[in-house]
Amino acid sequence: MELFRALAVLAEPPERPEVARLARLLGLGEPPSASEYTETFVFQLYPYASVYLGPEGMLGGEARDRVAGFLSALGRTPPHEPDHLSTLLATYARLSAPSEDEDGAVENVEDARRREGLRAARKAFLWEHLLSWLPVYLDRVAEVAPQFYRRWAELLLSALVEEARACGPPERLPLHLREAPPVSDPRAATADEFLSSLLAPARSGLILTRVDLSRAAHTLGTAARAGERKFVLKSLLGQDAGGVLAWLAEEASRQALKHASRRDAFGEVVGWWAARASATGKLLRELSTDAESHGAGART
Amino acid sequence: MSLKELNERVSAARRETEARGETFYPGPSRIHLAAFPPKERWDDWVELDSRAWPERKERRYMLVPTTCFNCESACGLLAYVDKETLGVQKFEGNPEHPGSRGRNCAKGPATLNQVTDPDRILFPLKRAGRRGEGKWVQVGWDEVLDDLAARIRKTISEGRHNEVMYHVGRPGEDGFTERILAAWGVDGHNSHTNICSSSARAGYQFWMGLDRPSPDHANARVILLISAHLESGHYFNPHAQRIMDAKAEGAKLIVFDTRLSHTATHAELWVSPYPGSEAAILLAVANHLIQNNLYEREFVRRWWNWEEYMAVEHPELETSFEGFEEILKTLYAEYTFDYAAKEAGVPARQIEEVAALVSTAGTRFSSHNWRSAASGNSGGWQVARTLFLLNALLGAVATEGGVFPNAWNKFVPRPIYTPPHPPRWNELTWPREYPLAMNELSFLLPHFLKDGRGRVDTYFTRVYNPVWTNPDGFSWIEVLQDESAIGCYVALTPTWNESAYFADYILPMGHGSERHDIHSYETHDAQWLGFRQPVLKAARERLGEQVKDTREVNPGEVWEENEFWLELTWRIDPDGALGIRKFAESRARPGERLGVDEYYAYIFENSVPGLPERAAKENLTPLQFMRRYGAFEISSKTGALYEQEVPAEELEDPRVDRFGRVYTRTPKPASTNVVPIPVLDSDAEGRRFVGVRIDEKILRGFPTPSGRLEFYSKTLADWGWHEYATPTYIKSHVHPDKLNPDQTVLISTFRLPVQIHTRSANSKWLDEIAHTNPLWIHPTHARALGVKTGDLVRIETETGYFVLKAWVTEGIRPGVVACSHHMGRWKLSGGAGQRQLMATVALERAGSEWSLKRERGTSGYESSDPDTTRIWWADVGVHQNLTFPVHPDPVSGMHCWHQAVRVRKAEGGDRPGDIHVDTEKSREVYRAWLQFTRPADDHSPDGTRRPYWLLRPLKPAREFYRLPEMMNAE
What we know:
In chain A, 69% of the residues lie in helices and 0% in strands. By secondary structure, chain A is an all-alpha fold. In chain B, helix 3 packs across helix 20 (561-572). The longest helix of chain B is centred in the first third of the chain and has 17 residues, at 3-19.
């Protein structure tokens, strides 16, 4: 489906000449500015599957290797950043192209087998590497990004809904999700491990952006120090551990509900995300209660 | 708008944009695997200057296309011409080139090294001392041209036309120099092909009339390569990328290679046969298809010339296809898997696997053999013939994923002038002993001259190095030093080479970015035209300047050949009295010499369908379009032309003979594509051959005498080679039966992936990667000899020996050794030469005994390029070809490269690169192989020297095909 390729291009820096043309073709209005692109994809919502699916919540690692392995298994040379959203969408556009060429012509057994193999590959790629994270990711884009990227995210999400329907549900949960450990309990681990796992979406079920942390600081009347997210979160907890943990618990519940609302379209996959966010919310509430009752923050 | 509508909207916009020839998704980006500057920005492309880092300094470029000149693939390049300095900053791929699609191997970007090589030849040089003494004076082009023109004029005026010879290595523009020679009326074309690919060409031509395969790898289901195509084969870059495309879609790759080449590492099935046994394996596969009825029966019935075979070979039987099938089942019955396994020394089970895989391919079976086994072995031409037998059995001929005859995937535009065929025959290049040779017997020239068969007054070599490239190089040195044999030797070369030391003139020719040519090659099922051009001329013209002569923009006085040949032709016949001058005269400005702009403008305006219209869409002339984009695709998906019906208007007074061949009185329709195609005999009443009747339809068929695929070659049978008329297995000259117990086989034909003969020695990037050619030897073999990696070994051939280092590796079959032919460059002590990849040697002669002793290898040196001080390699390998005697295959005329050798530890005093040869022994081997021939005098069925339908680069007029005795008798 060429639409995916066009949407992939729109996740690239907007100074590329075709972005404006495609934005207009897709009815998304005026193209975004370079600063809007940077705000969305560089500061808030990094467009790499490994960030959302890996247990480290960082670029690269096994999550990226799995995408590369998938491409290699299809006989394609993995590009430099195989798990970048643009690459994934462009790859899916190519994988989904042959099935659109079906014209009912008589085919031999070998051709039929190849076509069936491609169909299976397309479905596996869709669920393992796109729908395993994009429904929750795009929801967040639609919440925090500037206008253009909100519209882009909504269009991409609706295209994914159609694809999920066309391909049917997966036989089981994507491997990334099956293997993702839950968030670390700071009562049994270090605070550092807890914070890292909280910021790793596959472990916490939460996608916490810089905007979210600023919002928390604003709501709680604390100061958000400039720095990377873990540093910001740590400083917030240092100022008001109970309040911050309660805010995070509330945010986890909110995101869990949002995830669950996509269950009709994406079934068990978003169900998994909702359950994980709920579990994290439950832990955060316990920790908040502990913090309030002990008057102390998490063990540092 | 629904998603489906949005999707269609994007697709429609893309199609519309691409139909305008514009880029819809211009790179570079992480999405699009190709990263190219969009062509819309080629006039002003900005990149950061890497040397200015960390400062972000912008540099602005004009991107000017040209064509790589390093191997024959003719891949597209883009020169990044700095707009400030008007120098070339780098070369990358041209995404507009249909063959290479923007991708290049290492040799393409390394063109920059060649352009800036401090050792390149920048001015015409004339010999000052004795030939080979190494003394030179710089001369002007006018002096050179006047001297050569006068010399050739005298030769022609005295009727000694056959004493002018042009010997070509790296091909230039299709047919250009052939037409120059035809204009002079000389039959003086001499190509390197009989040391290169003519054996495989023979195998293909006797099947389908055309001598090159064009495999549609990208769409194949099974690919069988008898080559190292992913790293170095013919058209390797365009083909390799398509092979990988096919593999990405699930195609299976089978590779036959005695060595574990890079290509073999990518194969699903790698077969490492004993050298020369390949045809036996292929026939076992064919036998499997035949015995199990796995062949495409209807294709065989319609397109093989089985009726002719039955009529000639089995006249006692009733001619029926079923009868033929019964015989076919017996023909190859002896080629069992076990038999082939025994010949090849590989497990029968593996051959069975090959057969099983091939049988699944259907019509999507692409196969290729160009040099490799065909070029290594006597009878090697049957490797290509038995390989194509598989395609012919499967019906995988000009199908999607099958193999096409090359001429259907090639376009040679009709030029402004086409001089007539020369009225003479040159026996120095086309001797009577080899009536079926695919190409000139170029490598036998020293022996023919020594035999006294003739002399050469003016001998041009063009980007060719006969001393180094041919077998038996010392015999070449002997004749090049003999002024009674070769009167004047002119070396046209961009860089120093081993032959040029013995020249009278060395004339500096341009590299890929310094010259004009047009090219079209069978890289896939399409017809395209690529344009090589002097990029600085094109860049300056974009800026509004006029450049009349490439010497105005090239370094020093480097010239391009097309202008050189036109000027030389003009001066040979200054007043037109010889009838030559008119072929070099401007049509636009009569009385003036034709210039390259007019020459190419004519071609692009008149002979390339679709180009004028395409150019007009961008408000460009066709020439401007080609200067801007460098390539044009004329058509794609030509399909099975043999199945095309001959239209009724082409069938005036037709006649059909007993085998279905159809003849017509309608003249051949004019075509702007003048790609060489066999001219087939007319019927007795002068009607021309037009096609074949199959199932009541008259179809175009193949350009063979029968009009069909020739399972049975009546040509071979009629010209004395009856036993080889059908695809068969000929035991090689290195078959174990023919070797002494202490001999082994040396494979000497493989390339190193980044080097290309003597063309790339002045490329520092390539030299750093590959600069030596050790002996591949298996651990078991090495152990038996007591040799380990790095030890010196002596390889003894029939005429002498060479010394080199051993590389012990399991990548070679036990009992076979191998050495790449790309190394061992040398220059004479005290002489000029190239310093990055040439050892300095002493050359000594005592009678017929020659020795070449290495004095020193390479080392760092001061030059205009600071990198030359950083040369860290000293070993540049060995020039093994010097020790190989000539082995002309009696049918194809191909030099059979494999050597029966003795391998032993080096002796005290031996140094790497040392060589010793006795040229008298070379003469003995030459005479011995001459005995294998079946000359036209004794075997011609019709009193001619050669079947007229066989291709020949420069064809004499038809009457000169007759043997002299026949002409005299008339």
